[in-house]
Amino acid sequence: MSKSETSLDDIVSLAKRRGFIYQGSEVYGGLAGTWDYGPLGVQLKRNIMQLWWKMFVDERDDMLGVDAAILMNQKVWQASGHTETFTDPLVECSNCHSRFRADKIDTSKCPTCGKTGTFGEPRQFNMMFKTQVGPTWMGWETDDGNYIIGKPQTVNAKGEGISSLTIPEDRKFSGLITYDKNAQSYLRPETAQGIFTNYKNIVDSFYPDMPFGLAQQGKAFRNEISPRDFIFRSREFELMEIEYFVHPDNWEAAFEIWRKAVWEWTRALGLPKNMVHELEVPADDRAHYSKRTVDFEFDFPIGREELLGLAYRTDFDLQNIQRVSGKNMEYRPKDGTPAFVPHVIEPSFGVERAVMAVLSAAYTEDEMNGEKRVFLKLPKHLAPVKVAVSPLLKNKPELVAKAREVYQMLKKELGQVVWDDNGNIGKRYRRQDEIGTPYCVTVDFQTLEDSTVTIRDRDTATQKRINIDDLRKEIT
Ligand code: GAP
Fold it and tell me: What is the pLDDT of residue 152?
């Protein structure tokens, strides 16, 4: 089966059946754009995130890590431009009232009801989730943008009483809300701002050599107009971001270096080179902060779409922080040359997109002993289970005891090891193949005599005998 024949349904159904990823709040009918990771999914996701941290923080001299709070002072989002410009164009069908992102559909015809000419002009919809910090007063938001607290006083957005009224029975309110302008906050739509707001702290504490980068992993939230395509466009997702600070004269060289590093990352994920493509994003499509963006796209089962982005953010963010906070964001070079506000190269990696790309690239169907076999050809270092250990027969106590010994030994050393004694050996192999386990180890009667076991390779289905002492070396 070629990669182009793998459908999104194949991936979604395997992910659910085998405990990788479930619909969020599924038991209550779900919540659009949210997904829950099961035991295998969380391990795969962690393996990806840990690999990223190892490659981009642990193994480099020019990178430091950060873990900033998700909730931030509202001034962060005002200064960064997100409250004004973090929007997508929204259109609503006047016939069936379905809502869409105008740039993702052909607006001449409604994709839901099929009527033509039912969309008006797009309006800009801000994608940030608003929330309130601390106790706030409660009230009703009215159609005209004011708030009613208790009865019968109307207040404006600042909480000042502007009139008294009796609420007519049929008056429509958009709902009970809590409101306090000063307590307004947002669930962060990108992790980057948690890095920019700590840039000065880190320069003061560590005074790193220029250029240097700060890396962060964590949740981000976007109130997407139409979340879709499994985890591809979610409302809650995980980001891994790097802000790399450079002298303004050196941004182009740094951009090229990061471009190569991103390619290395796609290789480490096991993504075939011919399925990854660069897209130079035209000026009109770039984010408000970017002077150059290259998107790395991947041939997902849904088509060629963005996997991650590499942007030149200039000094946009640090200049904004300097302007709004009044604090100096300049870097003072150690060689005594003039101080400057650094410019920034930002590689930004979505974890869900990486998980989906890895699953799509790994999904394989072949034929074995005349039967169709589905297996995940995951890179060993990403597989959620590294090895499954079985006794040949589960009703032979001496085999079970020896197999348990091998299992405990591997579990202690590798962690991601499972015990599997269900069904016959053939069925165990199929089950492990389907979740991408690279090796299955079986303890049989010969093991009791010479301390050798059979080890079976997922991709070739070949088996060989090796000594228990050599297992670790063979597997890692
Ligand atoms: N700080 C830069 C930034 O946030 P972005 O292109 O908006 O840039 C970065 O997002 C990456 O986050 C994307 O390349 C993609 O991998 C991922 N991403 C964005 N929106 C997403 C969504 N709704 N669901 C899942 N991943 C998303």
Answer: 46
pTM for the model: 0.90
To test the pocket of ligand 1, the residue of 352, 355, 356 to mutate (highest count of ligand atoms within 8 Å of its CB) is 352
Instruction: Copy the structure tokens of residue 367.
Output: 């034929």
Task: State CA 184 to chain mean position distance.
Answer: 26
Cα separations in angstroms, 289 against 293, 341, 451: 10, 16, 62
Mean pLDDT of the chain: 91
Q: Confirm or reject: Cβ of 193 under 6 Å from ligand 1.
A: no
Lowest-pLDDT range, 172-181, 234-243, 342-351? 172-181
Instruction: Check if 432 has its Cβ closer than 6 Å to any atom of ligand 1.
Output: no
pLDDT at 161: 58
Sequence letter at residue 389: V
Report how far residue 263's alpha carbon sits from residue 280's, in angstroms, rounded to the nearest whole number: 15
Res 133: pLDDT: 85
* DSSP category for residue 17: H
CA-based torsion, 163, 165, 168, 173: positive or negative? positive
Residue 281 CB partners (closer than 8 Å, separation 6+): 290, 293, 294, 295, 309
